Amino acid sequence: MLTFLPSWSLRQVFLRCALPLAIGVQVAGVICIEPINMDSHEYIALARGLCEHQEYSAPRGLSGVDSFTGESPTRLRQPGYPVFLAFFYWVLGQKVLVVQIAQMVLNCLALWFMLTAADCLLDGKLMPWAAVFAVLYFPWLILSSMILAESLFIVLLWSAVLAMAKSVVLDGKRCYLFSGILMGAAVMVKPIGLPVLLLSAVPIAVVLGLREGLRSWSLVVTGCLICVVPWAIRNYAALGEITVLPSTSGYNLWVAARPLGAEWWDSSEEFTWATEDWKRYYIDRRASERFRELAIARLEVDGAFVVAGRALLRTFSAWLRFPGTGNRVGWNPSYVSLTAVQLAMVVLAILGIIRLRNRRSLFLLLPVVALTACLPVSKGLTRYLLPGMPGVALLSGHGLLSMLRLDVRRGEGVGNKP
User: For the residues 125-139, what does the mean pLDDT come to?
Assistant: First the structure.
């Protein structure tokens, strides 16, 4: 399919089943889930600074830390989502429901972009009802009910994958550049977009060949730089730091460096030292530097073997848990069954790729593989995988349906024998 529309049968499944189901799941999330958490307060406060003071700053007493005197200017979080909230929350009357509706629309767009990319990459061979499987894996959809950056990041991520798909199919240089711009916008929402950018070189090279692939990938990188370089210049001018990363990186690295069985993060003496006895906010610039020092020191003491083992265990545990179950999995039958569903989905996705026999299908796994690479240097939460999981669910649906169709055909063949 060379248009920006998926096949007719896939459009029908999307409009008649997948889209209504996606809307229903998100409405249920809005009704049942508390929309505000600690991260939400940070984003709302940063957006307020943009609206009221026209500056990117963190206010005094952020998220209940009364001793925190604020940080202006700051790089507490990436600026993309605070800019989004500046309009949809502060300008439009500080109504959480308005933000939730906007994010529901973004998730529906992301689903459309994903299906269009899959249909384009697979030459229309995707089983149409596989679209429903991307919706049935509901955790990524209900994130729209919360004041979090995921919905905005997801739509930018899958629009970038769609642009890459069009580039590969049409051999269009401008599409590569555009996909890089979209990827850069995603990085400005969440820094975990960077590994997606870096690893996108692999499927491009696999499909186009090494030399042509690297040429095309350089256009993707150029597009990304168009978006992120202005932010790096701002950070250098305002903070004296040439970086596009937020100041959360030091804290995340410290959490990743700790043993999985260690005491709760904010109960440790190291946490108290890094935040100067809670006088600093845990992800402000000074605290981030201190957390990074602690992480590097711990990694040097533990050694490469222990660090590698811990990284593998963190990655495995993130894939093993169904989103939202956290550390409560244990041997609870309900949580174990959800884990089984998630692992079965991965197996079926691999089966789907095998049955497709199309190297372009690797683009659908690019987001989740790149996000998996982030787990060893972060908290290792299953939530971090969610932006890429719809692609896995889509491929798993194709794998299951194609297997069932093959069984039906075999059965018909047996029945028709004299």
Answer: 92
Integer Cα distance of 9 and 246 in angstroms: 43
CB under 8 Å to 288, separation ≥6 — which residues?
247, 248, 249, 250, 251
- Compute the distance between CA of residue 280 and CA of residue 89 in angstroms, rounded to an integer: 27
Q: How far apart are CA 246 and CA 24, in angstroms?
A: 34
Containing structural domain, residue 239? 8-413
| 238 inside domain | yes
Q: How far apart are CA 115 and CA 18, in angstroms?
A: 11
Q: Do residues 18 and 133 touch, judged by C-beta distance below 8 A? A: no
SS3 264: coil
Residue by residue, DSSP assigns 185-209 as: HHHTT-TTHHHHHHHTHHHHHHHH-
pLDDT band at residue 58 using 50, 70 and 90 as cut-offs: confident
43 lies in a domain? yes
The single residue listed with the structure tokens 């169904």 is 322
Residue 370 tokens read as 């790149």
For residue 258, CA distances in Å to 255, 272, 311, 378 come to: 5, 15, 10, 11
Number of domains in the chain: 1
- Residues with Cβ within 8 Å of residue 287, at least 6 apart in sequence: 247, 250, 251, 274, 275, 276, 280, 281
Structural domain includes residue 88: yes
Cα–Cα distances in Å, from 381 out to 7, 199, 208, 344, 378? Answer: 36, 21, 34, 20, 8
CA distances in angstroms from 290 to 211, 267, 284, 332, listed in the order given: 43, 16, 10, 39
A 10 A CB-CB count for 171 gives 12
What pTM, to 2 d.p., does this model score? 0.92
Structural domain includes residue 1 = no
Q: Which residues pair with 157 in a beta bridge?
A: none
Residue 306: the pLDDT is 87
Question: Residues 196-218: what's their mean pLDDT?
Answer: 93
